[in-house]
Amino acid sequence: MRLDKLLADAGYGSRKEVKKLLKSGVVSINQKVNKDPKTQVDPSSEEVIVAGEAVHYQSEVYLMLNKPKGVISATEDSMHRTVIDLIDEKWASYSIFPVGRLDKDTEGLLLLTTDGSFSHRLMSPRQHVSKVYQAKIDGMVTDEDIEAFRVGVELDDGYVTKPAVLTILESNEISNIELTITEGKFHQVKRMFKAREKTVLALKRRAIGKLDLDESLAPGQYRELTEEELALFE
């Protein structure tokens, strides 16, 4: 790729700013000063240094975020704080976006990426990627609810959900459950329980496919996915 694009993508400024940087003579490739923005460079095999600092470049970004309540799953919004607002400036040059969405008042596992193909694989209904949620329910959840979810629940618009696995962790006036679904309709978990005349009081996504939320991440914290974690979606 062109040297000026590499530096711009790595966060060293706009193309115009990068050209000024190159003219100053502080950029080197394999220990040789280079001032030509059109120079072709391979960041995987060549060492690019800017003012004594090695340039870190990667073509795609994959982040695991523990989404907090009150933040929306969008790249920008004029009224509310978005998940992108939680990401450090060092990622600002990358076009990062959330994979799917979690409701504003839902917390837990949300993936962020620059990779459209990766996002499509996870979100396409044809892929049947499971999503596991933990929820606190106003009302006693029963074996009848388990069976209804197993068969498929008719939502308020007439849509019948695909079979889901409902596990009761605690059944009482306030119940705790875990729910595994393979689709992601608008407010689906809340609407499924509403169809059973129950209300979701709190909702957290614990897993996507075989990937579990790193519980060491506090709400609002994130980290890059490991190669082993990425391999779970291949």
Strand content: 25-35%
Low-confidence stretches: none
State the total count of DSSP E strands.
Answer: 13
Order of helices and strands: HHEEEEEEEHEHEEHEEEH
CA distance, first residue to last residue: 27 Å
| Envelope shape | elongated
Instruction: Find the structural class using helix and strand composition.
Output: alpha+beta
Mean pLDDT: 93
Mind telling me the C-alpha Rg?
23 Å
Oligomer: single chain
Number of helices: 6
- Report the helical percentage: 10-25%
Largest sheet: 9 strands, mixed
Description:
With 234 residues, the protein is of the alpha+beta class. It is built from six helices and 13 strands. The strands form two sheets. Strands 5, 6, 7, 8, 9, 10, 11, 12 and 13 form a nine-stranded mixed β-sheet that branches. The protein has a four-stranded antiparallel β-sheet with strand order 2-1-3-4, with no helix packed on it. α1 packs across α2. The relative contact order is 0.15. The mean pLDDT is 93.
